Amino acid sequence: MPPSVLLHHPHIAQNLGSVARVMANFGLADLRLIAPRCDPADPLAVSVAAAGAGVLAAARVYPDLDAAAADLQHLYATTALDRALPLPRLHPRVLAGELRARDRRRVGLLFGPEPHGLDYEALARADAVVSIPTDPGCRALNLAQAVCVCAWEWAAAGALPPPTAPAPAPRAEFERFLSRLYLRLDAVGWAAEPGLRARVRRNLRCTLRRAGPTRAELHTLAGVVEALGRP
């Protein structure tokens, strides 16, 4: 199953068109726009999309990242910067191998807004971070160029055998479990200081995402959380 492309708050119409064209070049069709700052129907976007106009026209708009990634089992976030997050960091070629090994799962590639890229909260929702090697003096790629590199690597990798590990739960179920866990922690006053609270939540999210819990495992964890809250 080809990966979905998620654009977080894209700002420039021409970039939307260029991303749609690149996706069409390499056989990707599922474009998801998260609270876009520009209109995918803008004539500038449509003209740049060229043969990718169908991809652009079919793009779905979501209010936030959680909604856009709710049905995905894996999410990879791209960034040009070194971020202090406890997440695996992948080269695009390694990413391509992982994507191909997960051809039967729902996988998304997340790209940040043009002015500044993804923030900590968005990166923390990913299973791994992808960094495209560039010259240190000019690290950030244009949005469509970054999509192009990842899409080409995926297309060039070819199909690999299907995965043998159990598939993780959809992200919407994972987020529901996290919300229950956070509520329980708040109820007992753990890590209540605002700055510490945000950092602890990010670390918990990253730790659990690395584990990739299945639906059954999430159900077990939810039972543990409920049991610990009883008198």
CATH superfamily of the largest domain: SPOUT methyltransferase, trefoil knot domain
CATH architecture identity of the largest domain: 3-Layer(aba) Sandwich
Main β-sheet, spatial strand arrangement: 3-2-1-6-4-7-5
Given helix and strand content, the structural type is alpha/beta
Could you tell me the strand content as a percent range? 5-15%
Overall CATH class of the largest domain: Alpha Beta
Mean pLDDT, as a whole number?
Answer: 91
Radius of gyration: 18 Å
Question: What kind of sheet is the major sheet?
Answer: 7 strands, parallel
Low-confidence stretches: none
Domain count: the total is 2
Output the helix-strand order: EHEHHEHEEHEHEHHHH
| Alpha carbon gap, first and last residue | 47 Å
- Percentage of residues in helical conformation: 40-55%
What is the tally of helical segments?
10
Overall morphology: globular
Total DSSP E strands: 7
CATH topology description of the largest domain: Alpha/beta knot
Write up this protein.
- By secondary structure, the protein is an alpha/beta fold.
- The chain folds into two domains: 4-157, 3-Layer(aba) Sandwich (Alpha/beta knot), CATH 3.40.1280.10; 171-228, no CATH class.
- 46% of the residues lie in helices and 12% in strands.
- The protein has a seven-stranded parallel beta sheet with strand order 3-2-1-6-4-7-5.
- Helix 1 (13-25) runs parallel beside helix 7, helix 5 (92-101) crosses helix 7 (143-157) and helix 8 (171-187) packs parallel to helix 10 (215-228).
